[in-house]
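Entry 14. Structure prediction run on the chain below.
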Amino acid sequence: MKKNNNKNSSARRKLAAATAMLLISALVLSSATYAWFTMNKEVRVTNMQVKAHAEEGLLINEVANAKSNTWDEEAIGGYSSAIALRPASTSNLSTWWHANSKKSYSEAGASGSDVDTVNTVDIDGSGTYYKNITGNNVTAYNFQSGSDGTKAETIVYYNDASFGSGGQYDDGEGYYIMYKYYMKSSKSDAGTYNIPADKLNVKVSAVKTNTDNSGTANHMDLDKALRVGVKFADYDCFKIFAPLYDADQTYKVADGEASINNTDVVAYTTETAIGKASGANGADDTTAIEIPNVVTDGIEVDVYVWFEGEDPNCKSDNLAAVLDSYEITVNFKDTSR
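Output returned:
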Protein backbone atom coordinates (compact mmCIF):
# COMPACT_ATOMS: atom_id res chain seq x y z
CA MET A 1 0.00 0.00 0.00
CA LYS A 2 2.84 2.31 0.90
CA LYS A 3 4.47 1.52 -2.43
CA ASN A 4 1.30 2.54 -4.29
CA ASN A 5 1.09 5.78 -2.30
CA ASN A 6 4.67 6.57 -3.26
CA LYS A 7 3.85 5.92 -6.91
CA ASN A 8 0.77 8.17 -6.71
CA SER A 9 2.76 10.89 -5.01
CA SER A 10 5.48 10.67 -7.65
CA ALA A 11 2.91 10.81 -10.42
CA ARG A 12 1.29 13.89 -8.88
CA ARG A 13 4.67 15.62 -8.62
CA LYS A 14 5.43 14.87 -12.26
CA LEU A 15 2.00 16.09 -13.30
CA ALA A 16 2.41 19.30 -11.30
CA ALA A 17 5.84 19.90 -12.81
CA ALA A 18 4.54 19.28 -16.33
CA THR A 19 1.60 21.63 -15.73
CA ALA A 20 3.94 24.33 -14.43
CA MET A 21 6.21 23.97 -17.46
CA LEU A 22 3.20 24.19 -19.75
CA LEU A 23 2.03 27.40 -18.07
CA ILE A 24 5.53 28.91 -18.26
CA SER A 25 5.79 27.97 -21.95
CA ALA A 26 2.42 29.57 -22.66
CA LEU A 27 3.45 32.72 -20.83
CA VAL A 28 6.75 32.95 -22.70
CA LEU A 29 5.05 32.36 -26.02
CA SER A 30 2.38 34.98 -25.39
CA SER A 31 4.88 37.59 -24.22
CA ALA A 32 7.25 36.91 -27.12
CA THR A 33 4.68 37.10 -29.87
CA TYR A 34 2.21 39.76 -28.82
CA ALA A 35 3.30 41.94 -31.72
CA TRP A 36 2.57 39.54 -34.57
CA PHE A 37 -1.19 39.88 -34.56
CA THR A 38 -1.30 43.61 -33.91
CA MET A 39 0.67 44.34 -37.04
CA ASN A 40 -2.23 43.30 -39.24
CA LYS A 41 -4.50 45.98 -37.76
CA GLU A 42 -4.62 49.73 -38.17
CA VAL A 43 -5.84 52.82 -36.37
CA ARG A 44 -7.27 55.76 -38.26
CA VAL A 45 -5.94 59.14 -37.22
CA THR A 46 -7.47 62.49 -38.11
CA ASN A 47 -6.80 66.12 -37.23
CA MET A 48 -3.36 65.40 -35.84
CA GLN A 49 -2.02 68.71 -34.55
CA VAL A 50 1.70 69.04 -33.87
CA LYS A 51 3.03 72.27 -32.38
CA ALA A 52 6.75 73.01 -32.08
CA HIS A 53 7.89 75.67 -29.58
CA ALA A 54 11.32 77.27 -29.18
CA GLU A 55 12.62 79.07 -26.08
CA GLU A 56 15.74 80.84 -24.84
CA GLY A 57 16.85 82.64 -27.99
CA LEU A 58 15.69 79.99 -30.48
CA LEU A 59 13.25 80.56 -33.36
CA ILE A 60 11.15 77.90 -35.10
CA ASN A 61 9.37 77.89 -38.47
CA GLU A 62 7.45 75.71 -40.92
CA VAL A 63 9.93 76.58 -43.69
CA ALA A 64 13.70 77.03 -43.90
CA ASN A 65 13.68 80.35 -45.77
CA ALA A 66 15.40 83.06 -43.74
CA LYS A 67 13.18 85.71 -45.32
CA SER A 68 9.94 84.02 -44.28
CA ASN A 69 7.75 86.22 -42.12
CA THR A 70 6.61 83.22 -40.03
CA TRP A 71 9.76 82.86 -37.90
CA ASP A 72 8.53 82.90 -34.32
CA GLU A 73 8.42 80.91 -31.09
CA GLU A 74 5.84 78.46 -32.46
CA ALA A 75 5.36 76.48 -35.68
CA ILE A 76 2.35 74.31 -36.57
CA GLY A 77 2.07 70.99 -38.39
CA GLY A 78 -0.94 68.87 -39.26
CA TYR A 79 -3.18 67.50 -41.97
CA SER A 80 -6.91 67.28 -42.55
CA SER A 81 -7.29 63.84 -44.13
CA ALA A 82 -7.79 60.71 -42.04
CA ILE A 83 -4.76 58.44 -42.23
CA ALA A 84 -4.74 54.69 -41.61
CA LEU A 85 -1.57 53.87 -39.68
CA ARG A 86 -0.43 50.32 -39.08
CA PRO A 87 1.88 49.69 -36.10
CA ALA A 88 5.57 50.09 -36.87
CA SER A 89 8.76 49.69 -34.89
CA THR A 90 12.05 51.58 -34.77
CA SER A 91 14.86 52.31 -32.36
CA ASN A 92 16.72 54.93 -34.39
CA LEU A 93 14.12 56.78 -36.57
CA SER A 94 16.00 55.49 -39.63
CA THR A 95 15.26 51.76 -39.90
CA TRP A 96 11.59 50.82 -39.57
CA TRP A 97 10.03 47.38 -39.29
CA HIS A 98 6.64 45.73 -39.75
CA ALA A 99 5.67 42.19 -38.70
CA ASN A 100 4.35 39.28 -40.74
CA SER A 101 3.57 36.21 -38.63
CA LYS A 102 3.60 32.54 -39.53
CA LYS A 103 1.14 31.79 -36.71
CA SER A 104 -2.15 30.18 -37.66
CA TYR A 105 -4.49 32.59 -35.90
CA SER A 106 -6.97 34.37 -38.16
CA GLU A 107 -5.81 37.84 -37.12
CA ALA A 108 -2.24 37.15 -38.18
CA GLY A 109 -3.09 37.42 -41.87
CA ALA A 110 -0.64 34.63 -42.66
CA SER A 111 -0.31 31.05 -41.48
CA GLY A 112 1.99 28.14 -42.05
CA SER A 113 3.76 28.39 -45.40
CA ASP A 114 1.84 31.55 -46.34
CA VAL A 115 4.27 33.77 -44.45
CA ASP A 116 6.88 35.61 -46.52
CA THR A 117 10.10 34.16 -45.11
CA VAL A 118 12.20 35.38 -48.06
CA ASN A 119 11.70 39.12 -47.63
CA THR A 120 11.28 39.06 -43.86
CA VAL A 121 13.52 38.13 -40.92
CA ASP A 122 12.61 36.10 -37.83
CA ILE A 123 14.50 38.47 -35.56
CA ASP A 124 14.17 36.83 -32.16
CA GLY A 125 12.96 33.31 -32.96
CA SER A 126 9.46 34.05 -31.68
CA GLY A 127 7.78 33.15 -34.97
CA THR A 128 7.25 36.80 -35.82
CA TYR A 129 8.78 37.74 -39.15
CA TYR A 130 9.80 41.38 -39.55
CA LYS A 131 9.96 43.25 -42.83
CA ASN A 132 12.19 46.25 -43.29
CA ILE A 133 9.78 48.96 -44.48
CA THR A 134 12.43 51.55 -45.30
CA GLY A 135 14.42 52.05 -48.46
CA ASN A 136 12.95 51.41 -51.88
CA ASN A 137 9.79 49.82 -50.49
CA VAL A 138 8.56 53.07 -48.95
CA THR A 139 6.46 55.68 -50.72
CA ALA A 140 6.47 59.13 -49.14
CA TYR A 141 3.31 61.13 -49.70
CA ASN A 142 3.25 64.88 -49.00
CA PHE A 143 0.14 66.19 -47.27
CA GLN A 144 1.44 69.74 -46.83
CA SER A 145 3.46 71.81 -49.27
CA GLY A 146 5.63 73.50 -46.66
CA SER A 147 5.33 76.90 -48.41
CA ASP A 148 5.26 80.15 -46.50
CA GLY A 149 2.07 80.70 -44.58
CA THR A 150 1.11 77.02 -44.47
CA LYS A 151 1.56 74.28 -41.92
CA ALA A 152 4.82 72.36 -41.70
CA GLU A 153 5.61 69.88 -44.44
CA THR A 154 3.82 66.68 -43.49
CA ILE A 155 4.91 63.37 -45.02
CA VAL A 156 3.17 60.03 -44.52
CA TYR A 157 5.30 56.97 -45.27
CA TYR A 158 3.53 54.02 -46.86
CA ASN A 159 4.72 50.61 -47.94
CA ASP A 160 4.26 49.97 -51.68
CA ALA A 161 1.48 52.54 -51.84
CA SER A 162 -0.36 53.79 -54.90
CA PHE A 163 -2.18 57.09 -55.01
CA GLY A 164 -5.09 58.49 -56.98
CA SER A 165 -5.83 62.05 -58.01
CA GLY A 166 -6.98 64.78 -55.67
CA GLY A 167 -4.37 64.18 -53.00
CA GLN A 168 -6.02 61.07 -51.51
CA TYR A 169 -4.48 57.64 -51.22
CA ASP A 170 -6.23 54.68 -52.83
CA ASP A 171 -4.24 51.83 -51.36
CA GLY A 172 -1.20 51.40 -49.19
CA GLU A 173 -0.66 51.14 -45.48
CA GLY A 174 0.70 54.13 -43.63
CA TYR A 175 3.30 53.38 -40.98
CA TYR A 176 4.63 56.69 -39.71
CA ILE A 177 4.33 60.43 -40.22
CA MET A 178 7.16 62.96 -40.33
CA TYR A 179 6.76 66.71 -39.80
CA LYS A 180 9.59 68.97 -41.01
CA TYR A 181 10.36 72.07 -38.96
CA TYR A 182 13.30 74.48 -39.10
CA MET A 183 15.21 76.18 -36.31
CA LYS A 184 17.64 79.08 -36.00
CA SER A 185 18.96 81.43 -33.36
CA SER A 186 17.67 84.91 -32.71
CA LYS A 187 21.33 86.00 -32.44
CA SER A 188 22.59 88.24 -35.23
CA ASP A 189 26.24 87.24 -34.80
CA ALA A 190 28.05 86.15 -37.94
CA GLY A 191 28.31 82.43 -38.63
CA THR A 192 26.47 79.84 -36.55
CA TYR A 193 25.58 79.42 -32.89
CA ASN A 194 26.86 76.12 -31.45
CA ILE A 195 24.79 74.40 -28.78
CA PRO A 196 26.19 71.20 -27.21
CA ALA A 197 23.79 68.29 -27.73
CA ASP A 198 23.55 67.78 -23.98
CA LYS A 199 22.45 71.41 -23.53
CA LEU A 200 19.66 71.47 -26.13
CA ASN A 201 16.64 70.16 -24.27
CA VAL A 202 13.40 68.72 -25.66
CA LYS A 203 10.08 67.99 -23.97
CA VAL A 204 7.14 66.27 -25.69
CA SER A 205 3.60 66.05 -24.37
CA ALA A 206 0.32 65.01 -25.97
CA VAL A 207 -3.39 65.11 -25.28
CA LYS A 208 -6.21 63.22 -26.93
CA THR A 209 -8.63 65.73 -28.43
CA ASN A 210 -11.53 63.36 -29.16
CA THR A 211 -13.32 61.24 -26.58
CA ASP A 212 -15.26 58.84 -28.80
CA ASN A 213 -14.17 55.42 -27.56
CA SER A 214 -17.44 53.67 -28.36
CA GLY A 215 -17.29 49.99 -29.10
CA THR A 216 -13.95 49.33 -27.42
CA ALA A 217 -13.70 49.45 -23.66
CA ASN A 218 -9.89 49.28 -23.70
CA HIS A 219 -9.41 51.72 -26.54
CA MET A 220 -7.67 54.29 -24.36
CA ASP A 221 -4.83 51.81 -23.80
CA LEU A 222 -3.79 52.25 -27.42
CA ASP A 223 -2.73 55.80 -26.56
CA LYS A 224 0.12 54.35 -24.53
CA ALA A 225 1.63 53.00 -27.76
CA LEU A 226 1.81 56.46 -29.35
CA ARG A 227 5.44 57.45 -29.94
CA VAL A 228 7.03 60.73 -30.99
CA GLY A 229 10.63 60.88 -32.22
CA VAL A 230 12.63 64.11 -32.51
CA LYS A 231 15.78 64.27 -34.65
CA PHE A 232 18.04 66.95 -36.08
CA ALA A 233 18.29 65.85 -39.71
CA ASP A 234 22.02 66.53 -40.11
CA TYR A 235 23.08 64.97 -36.81
CA ASP A 236 22.97 61.55 -35.17
CA CYS A 237 21.16 63.06 -32.21
CA PHE A 238 17.57 62.06 -31.46
CA LYS A 239 15.15 61.03 -28.74
CA ILE A 240 12.01 58.87 -28.68
CA PHE A 241 9.14 59.89 -26.40
CA ALA A 242 6.06 58.16 -24.99
CA PRO A 243 4.12 61.41 -24.61
CA LEU A 244 0.76 60.34 -23.17
CA TYR A 245 0.06 59.95 -19.48
CA ASP A 246 0.89 56.57 -17.93
CA ALA A 247 2.54 55.31 -21.12
CA ASP A 248 5.15 52.57 -20.82
CA GLN A 249 8.70 53.83 -21.13
CA THR A 250 10.40 50.54 -21.95
CA TYR A 251 9.58 48.20 -24.79
CA LYS A 252 11.12 45.64 -27.07
CA VAL A 253 11.97 47.05 -30.47
CA ALA A 254 13.08 45.50 -33.75
CA ASP A 255 16.32 46.98 -34.98
CA GLY A 256 18.43 45.56 -37.78
CA GLU A 257 18.47 41.79 -37.55
CA ALA A 258 18.59 41.65 -33.79
CA SER A 259 16.00 42.40 -31.17
CA ILE A 260 17.04 44.85 -28.45
CA ASN A 261 15.41 46.37 -25.40
CA ASN A 262 15.22 50.12 -25.88
CA THR A 263 15.10 51.61 -22.39
CA ASP A 264 15.73 55.14 -23.51
CA VAL A 265 12.12 56.06 -24.29
CA VAL A 266 11.38 59.31 -22.50
CA ALA A 267 8.34 59.50 -20.25
CA TYR A 268 5.36 61.84 -20.30
CA THR A 269 6.34 65.56 -19.96
CA THR A 270 9.97 64.71 -19.07
CA GLU A 271 12.49 67.23 -20.37
CA THR A 272 15.70 65.71 -21.72
CA ALA A 273 18.73 66.62 -23.83
CA ILE A 274 18.64 65.81 -27.54
CA GLY A 275 22.00 64.00 -27.22
CA LYS A 276 22.35 60.53 -28.71
CA ALA A 277 19.80 57.99 -27.50
CA SER A 278 21.61 55.64 -25.12
CA GLY A 279 19.50 52.65 -26.21
CA ALA A 280 20.94 52.77 -29.71
CA ASN A 281 23.97 55.02 -30.07
CA GLY A 282 25.76 55.37 -26.75
CA ALA A 283 25.53 57.92 -23.95
CA ASP A 284 24.43 61.52 -24.34
CA ASP A 285 27.29 63.52 -25.77
CA THR A 286 28.47 67.08 -26.23
CA THR A 287 28.32 67.14 -30.04
CA ALA A 288 28.00 70.76 -31.15
CA ILE A 289 24.76 71.33 -33.05
CA GLU A 290 25.27 74.31 -35.33
CA ILE A 291 22.22 76.57 -35.14
CA PRO A 292 22.18 79.21 -37.93
CA ASN A 293 22.01 82.88 -37.01
CA VAL A 294 18.94 85.03 -37.48
CA VAL A 295 19.71 86.15 -41.05
CA THR A 296 20.31 82.60 -42.33
CA ASP A 297 18.05 79.73 -43.44
CA GLY A 298 17.11 77.38 -40.61
CA ILE A 299 18.37 73.88 -39.79
CA GLU A 300 15.91 71.00 -40.32
CA VAL A 301 14.31 69.34 -37.30
CA ASP A 302 12.16 66.25 -37.95
CA VAL A 303 9.31 65.09 -35.72
CA TYR A 304 8.11 61.49 -36.25
CA VAL A 305 4.75 60.12 -35.05
CA TRP A 306 3.76 56.43 -35.04
CA PHE A 307 2.14 53.65 -33.00
CA GLU A 308 4.83 51.38 -31.61
CA GLY A 309 3.92 47.82 -32.65
CA GLU A 310 6.23 46.31 -30.05
CA ASP A 311 4.49 48.10 -27.21
CA PRO A 312 2.33 45.59 -25.26
CA ASN A 313 -0.58 48.06 -25.35
CA CYS A 314 -0.64 47.91 -29.15
CA LYS A 315 -2.85 44.84 -29.46
CA SER A 316 -5.93 43.91 -31.43
CA ASP A 317 -8.38 44.58 -28.58
CA ASN A 318 -7.17 48.18 -28.47
CA LEU A 319 -7.14 48.87 -32.20
CA ALA A 320 -10.61 50.23 -32.89
CA ALA A 321 -12.17 51.52 -36.09
CA VAL A 322 -12.80 54.95 -34.56
CA LEU A 323 -10.83 58.03 -35.51
CA ASP A 324 -8.24 59.24 -33.04
CA SER A 325 -7.21 62.88 -32.80
CA TYR A 326 -4.14 64.05 -30.90
CA GLU A 327 -2.50 67.35 -30.11
CA ILE A 328 1.25 66.95 -29.68
CA THR A 329 3.55 69.67 -28.35
CA VAL A 330 7.33 69.60 -28.86
CA ASN A 331 9.28 72.17 -26.87
CA PHE A 332 12.95 73.07 -27.51
CA LYS A 333 15.08 74.95 -24.97
CA ASP A 334 18.68 76.12 -25.04
CA THR A 335 20.04 75.48 -21.52
CA SER A 336 23.63 76.51 -22.36
CA ARG A 337 22.91 80.20 -21.77
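The chain has two domains: 1-32, 36-334.
Filed with the rest of this week's runs.
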